[in-house]
Amino acid sequence: RGLQPNLITYSAVVKACYDAKIYADALDKAREAVSMKVVPSMILMSSEVPKWDLHLLSESLSCMLLSDALLTLIDTGKHESPSFKDILVITGKGLNTVGQNGPVLREKVPKFLIDVAGLETSAVEGNEGRFLITGETLQQWASSTEFGQFKSLFHDKTPR
Fold first, then answer.
1. 114-140: per-residue pLDDT in tens?
2. Which of 18, 108, 114, 134 could make a disulfide contact with 60, Cβ separation 3.0–4.6 Å?
3. Tell me, what's the pLDDT at 110?
4. How far apart are CA 69 and CA 158, in angstroms?
């Protein structure tokens, strides 16, 4: 029988690697959790502006799966399309956050992108549970040294 990984075990391992800044291993485990259907994948909704929904994910899983999506998008975009669309990232307002720290994703995910990836985000006026990554920003980031440094954090783990 043995032990079977579940949401709690994957979340703990991803968080431990994320907190230790071992992003390659955190990403590897986040991908494994999604492939095992233990963790819901980021919901990608196609529309005029793609929407990536992080609502049901923890901070560490959100940051790793968003990193994976961005790295894959940039890699694919370099080969298929010379320009990128704006992306709307939904973190939620944090109304269901339990504890004294308040909303986690809406503050920490954009901070991760700025501090670790060097990728600027824009607030969405009138909805604090969302932020925007503009196509122009993605285009600039894709050819920046910050992108190269960010990609190197994941070693050979990117793209799939």
1. 999 999 999 998 888 899 999 999 999
2. 18
3. 94
4. 10
pLDDT score for 40? 77
Full DSSP string of the chain: ------HHHHHHHHHHHHHTT-HHHHHHHHHHHHHTTSSPPPEEE-SSS-EEE-TTS-HHHHHHHHHHHHHHHHHHHHHH-SS---EEEE----TT--STT---HHHHHHHHIIIII----EE-TT-TTEEEE-HHHHHHHHTSHHHHHHHHTTGGG---
Handedness of CA 70, 75, 77, 80 (dihedral sign): negative
Average pLDDT over residues 8-21: 95
